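Researcher: Let's do a round of design. I'm pasting the structure tokens now; please hold your answer until I've finished.
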């Protein structure tokens, strides 16, 4: 039984729209900010830009009709005059706030045409001996039709009911409270909902007060407990034990035309050791653009194949999946390994042949897009799943592939790769259920791409650059902007640029590639570009990930101010893969928003993907950084990953010990904070 269930159904529906589904959701719906109604300020002491509470007698009132209908009141407190301006008002307020009435008003002060004023302040008529508030006034986020007064009442009633039922009890053992110097949970919540006037209001607004730190700690701890418990559950599952005594990886290393870096050897050993364990690996392989993740994945695949299991490689786009197919075929076919290709655009006969090879176990390596986890795909013995650009797949999609083991109780190992580096704090929080390997070293000979910021008015210089590069025997990309609102506009832009450049460079072979072409058409264009037949490739962002043409040394990105940091970094990583130094020109158009200016400055100043990702996290916050496909993950409401890293580190350490020594308290704490959302963290 919950107090929430006893509420009026209409009210419950409104609360549910706010995401409040239980008693603990209500008492953890903490104030956005606080108003100080505990003291009065003299009008003579007011300053523009400050917020204050003032009391005075209405000495004037008028309704203006132009430039728009508005009510103007003037109050006096014997030290000065203050204007009150209302654009929305009821006729009854003309009587309520008539001259001679004493008003208590709270709002932000600004300089008006006739002196200081407040626009739409909070107003109350002062009755005889109306006392000032003794606590700061909380202001909660709400929705239309749900007033602050109703929300405050329901939160207070719920808190009292939970107290009476002894359900707000302390769940953290004393040893952790002392070690982390945290106040009790109940006192912290009580203070945040009803802060006494003795508390510095800045510490409440900035969320640095010990009560706020306790709430943030519990939130982080619940997240850590959920992810780490999932990590432990996974270790109790059975997975194929893939032998370390194998020859195929050694054979591949012998025939490769390059040597692995120390970082590649290190992460390959970490993955290999995991694959030999009897529980499923779930490892994230991070590496900057061009760091050599694919060859590390190939070594892992060979370990699984030689142990008698099949391997699935899934990529988010057909271009990237086909790139993997070509590269892995080049490496593995000489070793006698049958590879199957599955995509949504295949002919039915080709697809049926591939499905047969997968089901019979003839195809040991299966490469494809989302087509890999459709119902018609059945593996004989799936031992390892490799997911490239894992953040581009939804939680449900990844789980669907994991369920295709074909061995009943056996769970396949899973290796996820990402060229979008994940900042340390994000990795510690949202990826705490994964083991992480990082390739933090680029192969020898890979130099940083030179980045240039050029105003759109200087396009003539860019044209000259392209001509020089192509005359020198190199190739170039011209990338068109991502216009999220309209694929049609994006395509139109790409077509127009292709036509314009074709007229300017009549001597060059210029091609256009975009998402609306068939897979066959895209493959043909990319093949011609790889062979050097096409000099200049006009492209939408379909070439963002995985495309590898060593002779392409120049990239122009149109309207770079419209793109995100991760996307710009990915695109820039497509060039400079050969002997020539890569140059990336970011064309931008004025005026720039403050956010766009910061993005361009970051991509210009930094080449390290991890630093770019860290700056991106600061700009956008974890919700946007993780992307809409990760919306199943409950994001942090109170803790800030950059400012509260000390709390995150403490929560991580406490979570391990609580799961081991205080499992019941750990379970209650997860239920308190996550409730029905706890399952989202099992991706």
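Researcher: That's everything. Go ahead.
Model: Designed sequence:
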């Amino acid at each position: 039984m919950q107090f929430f269930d006893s509420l009026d159904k209409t009210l419950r529906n409104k609360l549910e729209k706010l995401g409040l589904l239980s008693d603990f959701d209500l008492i953890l719906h903490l104030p956005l900010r606080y108003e100080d109604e505990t003291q009065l300020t003299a009008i003579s002491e007011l300053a523009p830009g400050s917020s204050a509470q003032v009391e005075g007698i209405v000495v004037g009132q008028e309704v203006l009709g132009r430039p728009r209908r508005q009510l103007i009141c003037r109050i006096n407190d014997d030290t000065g005059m203050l204007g009150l301006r209302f654009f929305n008002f009821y006729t009854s307020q003309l009587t309520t706030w008539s001259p001679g009435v004493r008003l208590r008003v709270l709002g932000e002060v600004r300089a008006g045409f006739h002196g200081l004023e407040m626009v739409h302040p909070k107003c109350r008529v002062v009755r005889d001996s109306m006392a000032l508030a003794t606590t700061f006034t909380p202001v909660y986020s709400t929705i239309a039709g749900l007033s602050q007064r109703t929300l405050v009442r329901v939160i207070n009633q719920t808190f009292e009911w939970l107290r009476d039922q002894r359900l707000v009890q302390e769940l953290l053992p004393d040893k952790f409270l002392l070690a982390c110097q945290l106040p009790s949970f109940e006192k912290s919540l009580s203070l945040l909902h009803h802060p006494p006037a003795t508390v510095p209001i800045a510490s409440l607004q900035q969320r640095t007060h010990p009560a706020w730190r306790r709430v943030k700690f519990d939130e982080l701890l619940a997240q850590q407990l959920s992810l780490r418990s999932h990590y432990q559950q996974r270790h109790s599952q059975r997975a194929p034990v893939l032998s370390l005594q194998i020859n195929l990886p050694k054979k591949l290393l012998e025939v490769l035309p390059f040597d692995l870096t120390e970082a590649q050897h290190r992460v390959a050993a970490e993955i290999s050791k995991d694959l030999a364990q009897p529980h499923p690996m779930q490892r994230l392989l991070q590496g900057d653009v061009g760091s050599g993740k694919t060859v590390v994945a190939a070594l892992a695949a060979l370990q699984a194949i030689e142990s008698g299991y099949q391997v699935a490689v899934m990529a988010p786009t057909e271009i990237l999946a086909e790139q993997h197919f070509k590269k892995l075929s080049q490496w593995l076919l000489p070793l006698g390994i049958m590879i199957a290709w599955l995509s949504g655009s295949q002919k039915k006969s080709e697809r049926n042949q591939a499905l047969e090879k997968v089901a019979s176990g003839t195809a040991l390596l299966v490469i494809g897009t989302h087509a890999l986890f459709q119902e018609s795909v059945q593996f004989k013995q799936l031992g390892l799943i490799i997911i490239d650009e894992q953040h581009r797949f939804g939680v449900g999609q990844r789980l669907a592939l994991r369920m295709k083991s074909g061995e009943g109780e056996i769970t396949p190992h899973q290796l996820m790769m990402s060229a979008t580096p994940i900042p340390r704090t994000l990795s510690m929080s949202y990826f705490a259920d994964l083991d992480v390997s990082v390739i933090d070293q680029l192969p020898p000979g890979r130099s940083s791409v030179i980045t240039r910021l050029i105003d759109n008015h200087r396009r003539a210089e860019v044209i000259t650059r392209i001509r020089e590069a192509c005359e020198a025997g190199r190739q170039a990309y011209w990338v068109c902007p991502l216009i999220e609102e309209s694929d049609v506009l994006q395509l139109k832009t790409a077509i127009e640029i292709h036509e314009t450049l074709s007229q300017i460079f009549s001597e060059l072979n210029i091609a256009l590639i975009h998402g609306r072409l068939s897979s066959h058409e895209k493959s043909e264009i990319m093949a011609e570009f790889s062979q050097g037949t096409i000099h200049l490739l006009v492209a939408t962002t379909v070439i963002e990930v995985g495309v590898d043409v060593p002779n392409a040394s120049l990239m122009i990105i149109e309207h770079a101010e419209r793109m995100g940091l991760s996307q710009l970094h990915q695109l820039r990583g497509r060039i400079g893969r050969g002997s020539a130094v890569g140059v990336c020109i970011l064309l931008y158009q004025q005026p720039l928003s403050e956010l766009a200016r910061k993005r361009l400055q970051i991509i210009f100043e930094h080449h390290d993907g991890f630093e770019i990702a860290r700056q991106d996290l600061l700009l956008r916050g974890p919700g946007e950084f993780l992307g809409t496909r990760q919306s199943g993950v409950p994001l942090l409401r109170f803790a800030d990953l950059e400012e509260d890293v000390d709390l995150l580190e403490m929560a991580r350490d406490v979570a391990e010990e609580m799961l081991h020594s205080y499992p019941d308290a750990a379970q209650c704490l997860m239920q308190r904070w996550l409730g029905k959302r706890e399952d989202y963290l099992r991706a």
